[in-house]
Amino acid sequence: MEGKETKTDEASLMSGEEVSSVLEGQDGGIQTRSKFERVGLLLQVIGSCCLSLVSGMSRHEANAGIGVDTMVLWQSLMSMIVGMYLQTHFKLSLCAIENDHRREIFALGILQYMICAISSYVYTKFELTEATIVLLAATLSSGLLGTKILVKQTPRSSDIAYCIVSLVALFFVQAAVDEVYGLAICASIALGMYYAILFKLNEVSMLSVYVHMSTVSFAMALFKSIFFSQSSLVEGPLISLILMGIFRALGQIALLRGYQFENNPIAAAMVFF
Q1: Cα–Cα distance measured from residue 166 to residue 160, given in angstroms and rounded to the nearest whole number
Q2: Which of 155, 164, 183, 270 is buried most deeply by CB count within 10 Å?
Q3: Which of UniProt's keywords are assigned here (predicted)?
């Protein structure tokens, strides 16, 4: 009987040690995760500031007579150049994308061009705050719906709360319901589709994804500027166009990287503003 009790005590002692080690591992994992989330939120704040600056510059340059097609062309070009530079700096392959993901990335490139073009046009027609509210509200709604349908992932309660608040804010927008308003809704729905597709590429190098879809976006912008646009390839001060492109690239990359650490739907919604 004593031998059995001793074995039982040893077994219970070892199981307790194992449990404590597991708990310590869980605590360490939680701390590491919280650090990543803080880094992700910091990157999202930096990216949002950069893109907010770009939206203000877009409004200013449009008032100076620079066409939207010219701005989108240079922003796509600088996004591709900055992405390639960072890939070279971090010694990443420029073609590090598997064939299984090329279709999704090509779709993201098309969406990137559409959203950049339409949102830039909306910012030139609306007040900045009203344009942001319109774009953000429909983006969150369609993004959460697309995530639910395509990824089969249930949105968090906080995400749903953000969506409801943004929809309520639509009632305070003073802009007229005209063609521009409809384009803003279309851009937001397209960005919601992007938000859903991004979930499927969460394990792929986000920098490689960004470079590939920026290349597709630049090709489409160049094609439209040459054959279907009345705007010239260079309008106004070139340094302003280059700075807009650099700020947009840095903002998008910061938001995309931060989104990998912390799945904040507002970060995804602001990527192409």
Answers
A1: 10
A2: 270
A3: Membrane, Transmembrane, Transmembrane helix
The tally of domains found in the chain comes to 1
Mean pLDDT, 10 residues at a time, over the chain (273 residues)?
Answer: 47 44 54 74 82 83 81 90 89 70 80 79 73 66 62 65 66 60 68 66 76 89 85 77 90 80 59 51
What are 41's two structure tokens? 């939120």
Helix axes 99-125, 206-227, angle to 10 degrees: 60
Task: Answer yes or no: are the C-beta atoms of 133 and 166 closer than 8 Å.
Answer: yes
Q: Which amino acid is at 261?
A: F
**Entry pTM:** 0.72
| Residues 12-29: b if buried by 16+ CB within 10 A, e if exposed | eeeeeeeeeeeeeeeeee
